[in-house]
Amino acid sequence: MPSSGGQKKMKQIYVPPETGKFMFCLFFIFLSYCHVCFSELSSNQTSTMIELSRLLNISDWNLPGSERNPCSWKGVMCSRPNNGSVISLSLSGFDLSNSSFLPLVCQIETLETLDVSKNILSLIPDEFVTKCETLVGLKHLNFSRNNISSSPSFQDFSKLEVLDFSYNFLSGKTGDYGLDRLVQLRSLNLSFNMFTGSVPIYLSRSLEKLEVSDNLLSGTIPEGIEDYKELKLLDLSDNQLTGSIPSSLGNLSKLESLLLSNNDLSGSIPESLSSIQTLGRFAANSNHFTGDIPSGITRYLANLDLSFNNLKGSIPGDLLSPLKLVSVDLSSNQFVEWMPQSISPSLVRLRLGSNKLSGTVPSDAFESLQNLTYLEMDNNHLTGHIPPAFGNLVSLTLLNLAMNEFTGTLPPFGNLTRLQVIKLQENKLTGEIPDDIKLLSNLLTLNVSWNSLSGSIPPSLTQLKKLSTMNLQDNNLNGSIPENIGDLEDLIELQLGQNRLSGEIPAPDSLISLTQLILSNNQLTGSTPRFTRNVLVNVSGNPGIKPIKEDKVSIKRSSSGKRKLVLVLITVAIGVSALVAGIITVIVLKPSRRFKGVNNVQVDPDEEGSTVLPEIIHGKLLTSNSLHKSNINFAKAVEAVARPENALYQTMFWSYYRVVMPSGSSYFIKKLNSRDRIFQLACSEQLELELEMLGKLHHTNVMVPLAYVLYSEGCLLVYDFPHMLTLYDVLHNHTSAVVDWTSRFSIAVGIAQGISYLHGSQSSGRDPILLPDLSSKKIILKSLNEPLVGDIELFKVIDPSKSNSSLSAVAGTIGYIPPEYAYTMRVTMAGNVYSFGVILLELLTGRPAVSEGRELAKWVQSHSSQQEQRNNILDLRVSKTSTVATKQMLRVLSVALACIDISPGARPKMKTVLRMLTRL
Ligand SMILES: *[C@@H]1O[C@H](CO)[C@@H](O)[C@H](O)[C@H]1NC(C)=O
Ligand SMILES: *[C@@H]1O[C@H](CO)[C@@H](O)[C@H](O)[C@H]1NC(C)=O
Ligand SMILES: *[C@@H]1O[C@H](CO)[C@@H](O)[C@H](O)[C@H]1NC(C)=O
Ligand SMILES: *[C@@H]1O[C@H](CO)[C@@H](O)[C@H](O)[C@H]1NC(C)=O
C-alpha cells in the first residue's frame, strides 16, 4: 500500500478512532444504508466509488447488495491481502462518452492504474490533471481507443510509467503534452493519432517502448534516438519519415522489435543492425530502400520484412540459414540472384514474389524443411525443374510459383497433404497431372493454367471435395471431363477452356456453388449446361455444341415439389493459410442483374398454367401504423409472389417483389428461399417470434418489416418503400447522375447510425443484431441522403453451422467479407465494421467493392500508405468540386481505413465510427 502524503491527510480527517467508526455505522444503519461498515475500504473510498457508480451508471456495479463491497465490482481491483484500498480501476469498453467522471477518480488517492480504453470519450478535462496531481502512486494510464482530440499537458504525472494514448484524434506536436517531464516513463504509445512534427527524442531515458505508428510524423529518424538505451520496442511505422536509417540505431543493444514500415525512408539498410543480439523482428517494408541486403542481417532475427522496396543484388547466401528465423518477406524488390544453399529448418514463411530472380532453385536447400508453411516465388524468371524437395515440405499450405519459367513436370504431391493453394500458372510445365493429386484432401485452389500439361484430367481429381477453384485453362489436356465432376460440390469456378477436351459435357447441375463454368475452345459435344441461377457459362469455340444465349436467367416458380433451392452463392474461398500469407483467392461474380433481370425472366412452360394459390398458414402485422394496417393484404401478397414476372431479382437468400395492394399502394416483399438446411428457422414459429422482436425495432435508418406471412410455400416479409433504389445502383450505375459529397456524407452517417443502433449497447437490453451480408446493395435509399440498412432478418434466419462446407465458407458478398472470416467463420460486430468500411470506400472512391477482380479494400490499402497518394484515391468527380469536400473526404478515408484494419480487434466499434464521422 503506498504510504503517501495523501494517505496521511486522509487519516487526519477521515479515519475515525474505534468509537468514531461505531458512530459512523450507527448513523448509516439509522438510514438503513450500511454499506460502509461491510466494506474493508475506507469510508472515504467507498463513498467515492459509490458516487462514481451513480455517475457512470454501470449496470454491473448496481447489482443489489454490491454497494457493500466496491472491491467486487467489475474492473475494480483492491490492494491485497485485505482489500484496504482501491489500486486499479478498469473502465475499458463501458461505452463512456462523458469524461466528467475523470476528476472524481482522482479522489482515490491510492490508485495506481486507470484504464478507460475502448470508450467514446472525446476529451480529457483540465481538472483531471489538476485534481490528479495528488495521485502520486499513479503509474499506468490507458486512454487507448477513444475519440480524444483534446488533452491537457501531462507534465505533473511524474510517477507515470505507462501512458497509452493510441487510437485517438490527438494532433499537434508530441512536445505539446509535457511528456518530457515524465521521467519515469517506460512505455509510451501514441500510435494511430494525428501527431505532426518529428520523432520525439526528449523523453525519459528509461523508455522501453516507444510506439508512434500511424501518425503524420515527418523528418528523419533522429540520431538522438540512440540515447534511449533501454528501448526494446521502437515502432515508427506508417508515418512520413524520410532520410535513411541512422547506423547508430545499432547501439540500441536491448532492441527487440524495430518497425519502420510504410514511410518514405531511403538509402541502404545499415549493417550495424545485425549486431543487435536481441533484435527478433525488423520490418522496413514499403519504403524506398535501395542497395544490397547487408550480410548477417538475419543473424538474430525471427522475422524480417523488407518487401516493397527497391533492394537489389542477390539474396545473400547466409540470409535464410539462422536457426531462429521464422518469416522472411522480400517480395516486390529487384533481387536478381538466389544464393542461399541452406535454409533454417525453423522457417515458416518465405515470400520472394515479384522480383527478378533467375536461374534455378537448389533443391538441397529445401530438404527437410518441416515447418515451411507458405512459399511464394511467383512472378520471377526462375528456370529449371520445380525442385523435387518441394515434394517433402509436409507443412506446406500454400505454394505459389506462378509466372516463372519452370519446366519439367509437376512435383510429386503425395506428401503435401496440407496444401490448400497451388498456383503454378504461367510456367512451361509439361507432363500429366499426377494421379496422387487426389491425396491433397485440403486443396481449395488449383491453378495450373497457361502451361503445357498433357494427358487427361485424372478422374481422381473429383475426390478433392474442398476444391473451390480449378483452373486448368490453356494446356494440352485431352480426353473427356471426368464423369463425376458433379461431386465437387464446393466448386465455384471451373476453368477448362483452351484445351483439347472432347466427349460429352457431363451433368454439372449438382455443382450448386458454381458461379463460372468456362469450357470454351475445346472439342466438347452435347448441349450447353443450364442452371436455374446466375452462372457464367462459356462454351464458345466448341464446334460440337450449339450455343444458347448466355445471358438468360430463369427464375422458376416455386412449386411444392422437388424444386431445388435456388441459391446464388456469393462465395469466397479463403484458406486460412492463404489469408495469413496475405493471399486471398477471390472469385469475382458478375454483378447481379438487378432490375434488368425482370426483362429476361422466362416462365417455365410446364408451370405457366397453374392457378391454384398456396394456402396461408399465418399472417401478422408487425406495424401499428393504421395506414399500413388497412393497406396490407396477405392474400394479395401471396398471389403476387406466385407470378414470377413480378420478381425484381434474386439473391442468395431472397427473391424480391413489388406488389400493388388492392388499395392501390405498393409494397416491397421479400420471399425467403428457405428450402435449405442453412436456414435454422426457415419458416417456423420461432421465426415468428424473432420477426416480432425485429418488428419492434424503430430507427430512421433501419428497414424494419411491417408484416410477415407464413404460407405453404415459404414465408414473406412486407416492407414500405416500394421504389427500391439501392446505394449500389446510385453509385455504380452509370446512368445515374453523380451524387455530390454532401449527400454521400449523409448517407455514410445514416448507415453508421443504423448499424450502430442494430449493434445496440449495454443499455439496449437485447442481443446485438448483426448483418451477415452488409453491402451497398443492402442499403436502400429513401432519398439521396436518407439510407436504410436492409436485410436485418438474415442473422436470425440462417445458421452457418448447419451449412455444408462451401456455405460455411460463405457469408456476405465478395469485397465486403472481413479477412478473419476465413478462419473464424463467424459473423461479428467487427466484421460488420469492416463491411461498413468498404461501403465508406465506395462512397469515397465511387468504385464498386470489387472491380476487375480486385477488392476495393485491398486496392485502397495499397494506395493510401502515403498521404499524398490519398488524394488520388478519391472520386475526382466529387473531390474536385471543393477543397472543403476534399478535406472532409480525406478524414473519412482515415475512418474507413481504421474500419478495414486487417485485425478485427483494431477496428473501432460502430459507435466510435459514428462519433468519428459526426465530429468531422
Ligand atoms: C476523500 O478524501 C479526499 C482527500 O482528503 C477529499 O478531498 C475528499 O473530499 C474525500 N471524499 C469524501 C467523499 O469524503
Ligand atoms: C477482496 O475483494 C475480492 C473481490 O470482491 C474478494 O474476492 C476477496 O475475497 C476480498 N478479500 C478480502 C480479504 O476481503
Ligand atoms: C490499453 O488498452 C488497450 C485496449 O483495452 C489494450 O489493448 C492495451 O494493451 C492497453 N495498453 C497498455 C499499455 O496496457
Ligand atoms: C489462375 O491463373 C490465371 C492466369 O494467370 C489468372 O488469370 C487467374 O486469376 C488465376 N486464378 C486464381 C484463382 O488464382
TrEMBL record:
Topology with respect to the bilayer: Single-pass type I membrane protein
Looking up SUPFAM superfamilies in the UniProt record yields:
L domain-like (SSF52058), Protein kinase-like (PK-like) (SSF56112)
What the entry lists under Gene3D superfamilies is as follows:
Phosphorylase Kinase, domain 1, Ribonuclease Inhibitor, Transferase(Phosphotransferase) domain 1
| InterPro entries named among the record's database cross-references | Kinase-like_dom_sf, Leu-rich_rpt, Leu-rich_rpt_typical-subtyp, LRR_dom_sf, LRR_N_plant-typ, LRR_R13L4/SHOC2-like, LRR_Rcpt-Like_S/T_Kinase, Prot_kinase_dom
Transmembrane stretches in the record are: 565-589
- Keywords in alphabetical order: ATP-binding, Glycoprotein, Leucine-rich repeat, Membrane, Nucleotide-binding, Receptor, Repeat, Signal, Transferase, Transmembrane, Transmembrane helix
GO CC annotation: membrane
Give compartment(s).
Answer: Membrane
Q: What is its main location?
A: membrane
Q: Which PROSITE patterns match?
A: PROTEIN_KINASE_DOM
Under CDD domains, the record lists: STKc_IRAK
Matching SMART domains: LRR_TYP
Please, which domain of life does this record's source organism belong to? Eukaryota
Task: Cite a single GO MF annotation.
Answer: ATP binding
The Protein kinase domain sits at 642-920
Q: What is this protein's record name?
A: Leucine-rich repeat receptor-like tyrosine-protein kinase PXC3
Q: What's the source species for this entry?
A: Cardamine amara subsp. amara
